[in-house]
Design brief:
Strand 3 (42-47) and strand 4 (50-57) form a beta hairpin. 15% of the residues lie in helices and 44% in strands. The protein has helices at residues 2-14, 31-38; strands spanning 22-23, 26-28, 42-47, 50-57, 63-68, 73-81, 84-89, 93-101, 107-111, 122-128. It contains two helices and ten strands; from the N terminus they run αββαββββββββ. Helix 1 (2-14) packs antiparallel against helix 2. With 140 residues, the chain is α+β, with helices and mostly antiparallel strands. The protein has one domain (2-128): Lipocalin, CATH 2.40.128. The protein is globular, with a radius of gyration of 15 Å. An eight-stranded antiparallel β-barrel has the order 3-4-5-6-7-8-9-10.
Amino acid sequence: MKTRYLFATMLTVMTTPLAAQSMGQGVDIPPAEWLAMAAGRTLTYRLNGEFWALEHYHEGTNRVSLELRSGECVEGTWDYQEPWYCFHWEMIGTSCFRHALTQQGEIIIEPMAEPGTNPSIQHMTGISNVPLSCTPPSTS
């Protein structure tokens, strides 16, 4: 089921070229498609082939929780400032990224970087419904 959902989401993104801009390594994923995939779920990221972090998007809000490889957890909010997804982390500051789908069907996350630098590209490698161990409990 998860694989089918991810494939359907990727297919939706690939068939909406008017809503997306092309970037160096793929096509930008518009916020509506990103939320359809991420809201209420936990995403897994790899950096240079190794596990880097888990990120949970709290459904119905702009809140996000990040659990790093070290086990450290960070809370924040996010917004979209075309073409950047910007994350405002408590006690850390803001970091911005482009979310893109490659021709090979891979989702990559490219950080905003200074001209002439070679930023490390993250690869989103999984989606689950399991909350993070650091995710605050739901309020109803």
